[in-house]
Design brief:
single chain, alpha/beta, Aspartate Aminotransferase, domain 2, Aspartate Aminotransferase, domain 1, 2 domains, seven-stranded mixed sheet, 12 strands, globular, binds pyridoxal-5'-phosphate, Cys/Met-Metab_PyrdxlP-dep_enz, O-acetylhomoserine aminocarboxypropyltransferase/cysteine synthase, O-acetylhomoserine aminocarboxypropyltransferase activity
C-alpha cells in the first residue's frame, strides 16, 4: 500500500516495496538514498523545526504532515512509523510512549462516552485493567468474554463500537479467530482492533490481512527486542468503515468529510500524541527501529527454541498443563496454523507443583516481567502481572497459582533445557 503522504526520502518506491520480503523491508524502510545520506535512521533530538516563510508555517499547522513540534511529529519517530507500516502492510502508523499508551489511543479512536467494547478475557493484564478500571471513568464500558467467536457475538450490544483481541492471548497462549471476529464487528459497523505484540510486528501474523481495522504493539517487546526501551504503536489499514460511528459522522463538516480515509489515524495522532502527549522520544524510536532490523532473525530462532522447550516440558513428569499453540495437542493448534506463519510465538505458560522452589532453582533463566527480550525470562503471573485482578478474572485469563509464563530468548536450546531440567528435579 502507498502511504497517503509518500515520501521518497523515507519510503521505498511502492511498486518495489510490494515485491520485497519482510527481512528486506525491515532494514531498508525509513532510510533515504543519495550521496552523503546516512545509512540508517538518524536521531533528530529536538523539540521544534523551522519554517522559511509564514505561508509554510500556516500550511504545516493546517495539515500536520511535516515537522513543526516533536509532540505532533518528529522525523526519527516518523521513519520508525513508516517501517512499522511497511511490516504490518498498513496505511499509517502512530508511535506512542508505550504499549499501554497505544491501547488507550486505539480505544479512544473508536469509542466515546456511552460506547461499549467487547474484549477477550485472556488479554495482557494492563489491558484488562484499563478496560475494567480506567475507561468506565470516561463512560466507556467493556465486556470481557472467553476467546471464541460465539462468546464475542453474544456479548455484542447496539452501542458496541470495538472488538478487541490479542493475536495470541496472555499467558494462556490462545489464538484469536481473527476473520470470524472481523465479520462480527463489521456486521454492525464496529471495528476490530488487535494487539499484535506477540505476532512480532507482522512477522508471525498480519491481522490487517485477516480483516482487522487497527493493530497495536507494545514495541517494548520483540520490536525493541533487547529489554532496553519502552514504546507502542497503532497501525491502521485501508478498508475500515467509519460511516456508522458518530465520532466520525457527527458535526458539519464531520471528521470523515474533513479527513477522508485518513480520519482514523488522524484522530489517533491528534489524541494520543498531540493532545495527551504520550509521545515516543526520538532516542527510543531509534533503538526500536534498530531492533526491528533483527526482529526476524531473533523471533524465528526463539519460536524454534520455544517449540522444542514446550515439547520437552510437556513430556516432563514434573510439569502439568503446557499452553503453547505449537503443540499438536493444543486446542489452539489449528487456529495457530491458520493465522500464524513462521512459528507459533516465543511465549508459553506451564504449571509446576511448587512455583517458588522452581523459580529459585533457575540459574540461567531470569525472573523479570518482560517479553521479547534476547534473554529468556519467566514470571509467576498469579502473584505479579495478574496479581491485582479478582481471582475469577485471573482464572478466566488462564492463570492458576501453579502457572509460570516464559518468554524464550536467543540462548542455546541445550542451555535452556538443562536449566529447566535442573529446576524441575
Ligand atoms: C507488554 C504488553 C503491553 C503493554 O506494553 P507496555 O509497553 O509495557 O506499556 C500490551 N500488550 C501486550 C500483549 C503486552 O505484552
Amino acid at each position: 500500500m502507498t502511504p497517503p503522504d509518500y515520501d521518497a526520502t523515507l519510503d521505498l518506491p511502492p511498486e518495489l516495496a510490494a515485491d520485497l520480503s519482510y527481512d528486506t523491508l525491515a532494514v531498508h524502510t525509513g532510510i533515504g538514498r543519495g550521496t552523503g545520506v546516512g545509512v540508517g535512521i538518524p536521531i533528530q533530538q529536538m523539540a521544534a523545526f523551522q519554517f522559511d516563510s509564514l505561508e509554510a508555517a500556516a500550511r504545516e499547522f493546517q495539515t500536520n504532515t511535516g515537522s513543526s513540534y516533536s509532540r505532533i511529529q518528529n522525523p526519527t519517530v516518523k521513519a520508525l512509523e513508516r517501517r512499522i507500516t511497511a511490516l504490518e502492510a498498513g496505511s499509517e502508523t502512530v508511535c506512542l510512549s508505550s504499549g499501554q499508551a497505544a491501547s488507550f489511543t486505539a480505544f479512544l479512536s473508536a469509542c466515546r462516552a456511552g460506547d461499549h467494547i467487547v474484549a477477550t478475557s485472556s488479554l495482557f493484564g494492563g489491558s484488562v485493567a484499563m478496560l475494567s478500571n480506567v475507561l468506565p471513568l470516561m463512560g466507556i464500558t467493556a465486556s470481557l468474554v472467553p476467546n471464541t467467536p460465539d462468546a464475542v457475538k453474544a456479548a455484542m450490544q447496539p452501542n458496541t463500537k470495538l472488538i478487541w483481541a490479542e493475536t495470541i492471548g496472555n499467558p494462556a497462549a490462545d489464538v484469536a479467530d481473527l476473520s470470524a471476529l472481523a465479520e462480527i464487528a463489521h456486521a454492525q459497523g464496529a471495528l476490530l482492533g488487535v494487539d499484535n505484540t506477540w505476532g512480532g510486528v507482522g512477522l508471525l501474523c498480519r491481522p490487517l490481512d485477516f480483516g482487522a481495522d487497527m493493530v497495536t504493539h507494545s514495541l517494548t517487546k520483540w520490536a525493541g527486542g533487547h529489554g532496553s526501551v519502552l514504546g507502542g504503536s497503532v497501525t491502521v489499514g485501508e478498508r475500515h468503515d467509519l460511516t456508522r460511528n458518530a465520532i466520525y459522522t457527527d458535526g458539519e463538516p464531520s471528521l470523515l468529510e474533513v479527513r477522508g480515509a485518513g480520519a482514523l489515524a488522524w484522530r489517533q495522532r491528534w489524541f494520543g500524541a498531540s493532545q495527551l502527549g504520550m509521545i515516543l522520544p526520538p532516542q527510543s524510536a531509534y533503538a526500536i527501529a534498530q531492533g526491528l532490523e533483527t526482529l526476524s532473525l531473533r523471533l524465528t530462532r526463539e519460536c524454534e527454541t520455544a517449540l522444542a522447550l514446550a515439547e520437552f516440558l510437556e513430556g516432563h513428569a514434573g510439569v502439568g498443563r503446557v499452553n503453547y499453540p505449537g503443540l499438536e495437542g493444543s486446542e489452539f493448534h489449528a487456529l495457530g496454523q491458520q493465522y500464524l506463519s513462521g512459528g507459533f510465538g516465543a511465549v508459553m505458560s506451564f504449571e509446576v507443583a511448587h512455583p517458588e522452589e522452581f523459580l529459585s532453582r533457575l540459574k540461567v533463566i531470569r525472573m523479570a516481567p518482560n517479553l521479547g527480550d534476547t534473554r529468556t525470562l519467566v514470571v509467576h503471573p498469579w502473584t505479579t502481572t495478574h496479581g491485582k485482578m479478582p481471582e475469577a478474572a485471573r482464572r478466566a485469563a488462564g492463570v492458576t497459582p501453579q502457572s509460570i509464563r516464559m518468554s524464550v530468548g536467543v540462548e542455546s536450546l541445550a542451555d535452556l533445557q538443562a536449566d529447566l531440567k535442573r529446576a524441575l528435579s
